[in-house]
Amino acid sequence: MTQAGPDEEGAPRALAQRIANGIMSAANVAATAWILLLMVLILSDVIGRNAFLAPIAGVPEMVKYSIVGIVFLQVAHTHRNGELIRSDGLLGLLTKRAPRAGAALDLVAQLAGVAVSLMLAWAVWPKATRAFERGEMEGIAGHFQMPVWPFLTIVALGSVLLAVSFLISAVHAARKVAA
Question: What does the domain layout of the chain look like in residue ranges?
Answer without folding.
Answer: 6-178
